[in-house]
Amino acid sequence: MHSTKTIPNFRFYGLFIITCSFFLFGCPSEKHETIKEEPKTTQAIIETKDTLPQFDAQAAYKLVEKQLSFGARVPGSPAHASCRDFLLSTVKMYADTAFLQSFKAEIYGKPILFSNIVAAFNPKSTNRILICGHWDSRPRSDQDPNPADTSKGCPAANDGASGVAVLLEITRILKTTHPSIGVDVVLFDGEDYGYEHDLTNYFIGARHYAGNLPFAKPSGAILLDLIGDKEAELRFEPGSMQANPEAMRKIWDIASRRNCKYFIPENGSGVSDDHDMLIQAGIPSIDIIDVNLVGQNVTNPRRKYWHTTHDTIENISAETLGCVGQCLLEYVLTY
Predict the structure, then answer these.
(1) Model pTM score
(2) How does DSSP assign 41-110, residue by residue?
């Protein structure tokens, strides 16, 4: 999905030691276990003995499927418009306020209507945090091994839909938990529109949002991107660690306590993504991302689907969605 995500960021930072608690609950710790998408199994995985509400991993999985049912959500396409309407109607059911932040931009000589989908809780509060992801699909599958498929839009099951599904389920939960702070849930459009290495035409929605904040500036932001793979590897993104190390340490600590195997407390590669637009606007932001998928920097053949027509539901696990969702939900509710 993401532009010069193929350009490595050579900023390396020291290994940050995560303080781990030893509560034996949460997701199983065996690293290479194959998880079937069964409701009872997933429920057992994400149950905890604490008082926080439980993230519904199967509901999130179905939300990934729902987004894919529209087809590739390429800006300007009928599938994009239909999915936009579905996402807006969904967040409107839960948030205190929800609306489209729409704007036109001329990209590669073509005028396109983009729409960020904004949902907010306690919109008048000046103490706010932002959780976000992108909902659009890449217009071209330029990394596809089949030349005949490179001009097709990406299905974007993981590169977009997985993070959106987690955010939608958290939005549903926040309706009944009534957070004491302001929480903004934003689905960015136009993240993945540009050609490779053309950063000016990536992150279109995030750039617009950062320059046109509809509420008080958030004190921090968490971006979800490429978080749903069956064998996800979520490492520290160096730019994120520099921008908001406290948020990174806390989320990885929550994951450790919950025995969520997908959060790996070691440095990963740097990446350009929507969080950069927020950081440039003075919002300390982190990117939770399976960064080795970017550029297909993986040895597992199944995981070589970034920016191809193979970014499909078969790569997604309800267990992964549940672990990421529960960790982010705890972070938001204990902020």
Answers:
(1) 0.85
(2) HHHHHH--SSSSPPP-HHHHHHHHHHHHTT----TTSHHHHHHHHHHHHHHHTTSSEEEEEEEEEEETTE
